Amino acid sequence: VHEWADDSLQSWIEMELDQENYEAVFNLAKRFDARFTASPLQLHVNQSAGRAHLKTEQFSAAVARFERALQNATLPEDKATSHYYLGLALFGLEQHQEAAIQFDEIDRTKINTELQTALAFAIASVRFELQQYATAIDPLLEYLSESPLGSEAATCRAQLAIAYAHLGEYETLKESLKTFEEFCVEHPVYLPTIAYLAEQAYANENFELARTLFSELSRDDNPPEYVKKGLSGFAWSQMKSEKLQESDEAFAALMARHPESDLAANAAFALGQMRAEQSLHSEASTAFEFILEHHAESDFAPHAVFQIALLEEHLGDKAAALTRLLELLQ
Predict the structure, then answer these.
(1) Which of the listed residues 95, 152, 190, 287 has the most CB atoms within 10 Å of its CB?
(2) Where are the alpha helices (DSSP H) in 218-280?
(3) In this structure, what DSSP letter does residue 58 have?
(4) pTM (predicted TM-score)
């Protein structure tokens, strides 16, 4: 059997890693561990095996490899690289505080130039997960400055917008959203981010922003689950802003286009109440009847029956109202 020297075996491991043959990397690394326990190349083998574990999302195994790499590291450059990869592995395990500690240990003047931008994204991501939004902004902007079309640019733009929202920096958020739409409207992260921001704006009673974002969700070319959410949120935002006609139209559009949706049942009940308060009794009854037609088994149904009975009594049809109320007792 041919016996490989440590440098040859380490080069072989690097080659297999470059070719994404991760199982080969693991097997060769084990051979190296068994034969060359004192080799100065242990550092590079541990880093290579750890990166292979990262690629295959074996984060605990990656942590073990990078911790060994740190023990082997003597040069500042090697220490910085090992801290970086160890941080990524801990992030994969959702140990965000521990990951942040590793990133803080890095002397950025010693990190490989090729990893500088990736490190900025890693630092931003861990701070974002820790809800440290104010300190996440600078590394997000750094990544976008260096790599505006990079593989993580869309995620950075999404996180940046969310950070501004949480910090209440709404004017900056509006500018950020323009760029987000320009670069990311077709990206999978776009609609979930807009939905999140719309709900945040609504919860914070920023109904103007909520209307804008929910309107974006309700575009006809979006997937139905976002259109439904958009129409519903837009209607509620308009109602909260006392723009009742616009709210009425949005609720009605949701009911017409997605009658079987649970959001449509909610919309119908809200619409019925809103119309009743405007003394639009017949129109209110139509909204409540929608619930009985399309959502007879929902929790809204008995409340709709009661509301219809009240409207019928108000219109002077006490017999019909009594019949409705008797339905509730059956």
Answers:
(1) 287
(2) 224-240, 244-257, 262-277
(3) -
(4) 0.85
